[in-house]
Amino acid sequence: MTSGADVAVTGLGLVTPAGCSTAASWAGVLDGRPTAALDPELKGNPVQLSCRVPGFDADALLGARRALRLDPFTRFALVAAREAIADSGLDPAEWDGARVGVVLGCADGGPGTVEAQHRTLLDEGAHRVSPLLLPMQLPNMMAGQTAIEFGATGPNLVVATACASGATAIGVARDLLLLDRCDVVLAGGAEAMITPLVMAGFARMGALSGREDDPATASRPFDAGRDGFVAAEGGAVLVLERTADARARSARIRGRVVGYGSGADAHHMTSPHPEGAGSEAAVRAALADAGAGPGDVGHVNAHGTSTPLNDLAEGRMLARVLPHGPVVTSTKGVTGHMLGAAGAVEAALTVLALETGVVPPTAGLSTLDPGLDIEVATAPARCPDGVALSNSFGFGGQNAVLALARA
Question: What is the pLDDT, as a whole number, of residue 340?
């Protein structure tokens, strides 16, 4: 792997159920503290569990007037982007905005705004519907608002590949840099889908954990007793630059994106391919892109949602493709499943694992599924040298895999 073929991660910003900053999120994930809890806003729903971002004061962070005009998914993206840019050492007042891109991912935009305004329509009539309905809920608005905030006038995209969206966004951002379309890209994702309607839909599909009597064990990736995921909210933004450019400005390089693979299962609208054929192809493509082989992989941040079918398919695929047994974790045991933001958050956490040399534990895992032959960390573990993979898979058979390496 050569620096000319990869991009550097020079800034990280995180807003997650484990904390409202990178440091707080990393500490929570390392500590293995599950964040699932009964959610009073879901009272009456078939499943009332969620993982919310704690202590997120949008009025204080963004100003009350501005926060009122933004759906929560955009608020998360802006706060994460601010932290990432500050971390990178870049000054938006000094950059050439035309060479700065924004590529973010989400699965659904602002369903909370839509649901609230639909209630207004039914209760008060069309004349009371907010003129901000569309500017708040459209998925592209988090990228548009980020560009407005920082004067980024280069390529501006929001990608939607379901729960692979955040990882896809990072892969697209990397391509923009390597194609010399941008010098800097703010890449990542954000999601705020914990609403009564969305959660009722997930519950009716049978996708959610019903372990309401013991929320701390509801999200239990790869466990023999797993029964579904716990929906979460949050966001992450990574500042990406070509490695040579980052070194030229003496930036702190926190990690590198050295490969990206994507593809489709072409199998089922919600269920993964039972043998993980599409995810295997994405893993192999990411490794080939990185100039690496399966034996070079030391760590995998798995998609690991805690659903029966997903974990089994992914675990079998990992055992088949990576028979040497790299250390695997699913940080969703702590954070829950942030849906379209998950891939971005987990890419950032994988960068931190490489940077610190520590793999976070898989919270909630007590008994590994006997059908799996993989090494899953249940306590903080040493992060080996080599490539780390961050896997993200979504409804529709969407697969995105990032290959990451130390600085």
Answer: 97
Catalytic one of 163, 182, 273, 383? 163
Question: What's the pLDDT tens digit per position in 322-359?
Answer: 999 999 999 999 999 999 999 999 999 999 999 999 99
51 is catalytic: no
Inform me whether the pLDDT recorded for 77 exceeds 90.
Answer: yes
Integer Cα distance of 96 and 100 in angstroms: 7
pLDDT tens-digit map of 134-169: 999 999 999 999 999 999 999 999 999 999 999 999
- Helix, strand, coil distribution of the chain in percent, nearest 5: 40, 25, 35
Of residues 38, 156, 59, 79, the one with CA closest to residue 341: 79
The rounded distance, in Å, linking the Cα atoms of 82 and 95 is: 15
Query: Are 255 and 386 in contact, with CB atoms under 8 Å apart?
Result: no
Query: Which of the residues 51, 106, 337, 383 is marked catalytic?
Result: 337
Provide the token pair at 384: 């080996």
pLDDT in tens, 179-217: 999 999 999 999 999 999 999 999 999 999 999 999 999
Contact of 371 with 226, CB cutoff 8 Å: no
Distances (CA, A) of 89 to 26, 92, 359: 20, 10, 26
For residue 337, indicate whether it is catalytic: yes
Tell me the C-alpha distance between 214 and 146, whole Å. 38
Question: Which is nearest to 202 in space by CA: 391, 37, 334, 45?
Answer: 45
Q: Indicate the angle between helix axes 277-290 and 308-321, nearest 10 degrees.
A: 40
Question: What is the strand order of the sheet 255-264 is part of?
Answer: 156-159, 100-105, 184-191, 234-242, 7-15, 255-264, 398-405, 387-394, 297-301, 327-329, 375-376
Whether 324 is a known active-site residue: answer: no
State the amino acid at position 64 in one-letter form: A
Per-residue model confidence as pLDDT tens digits over 234-261: 999 999 999 999 999 999 999 999 999 9
The whole-angstrom separation of Cα 135 and Cα 97 is 23
Question: Which run of H or of E encompasses 95?
Answer: none
Average pLDDT, the chain: 96
DSSP state of 80: H
The Cα–Cα gap between 319 and 284 comes to: 13
Give pLDDT, residue 40.
97
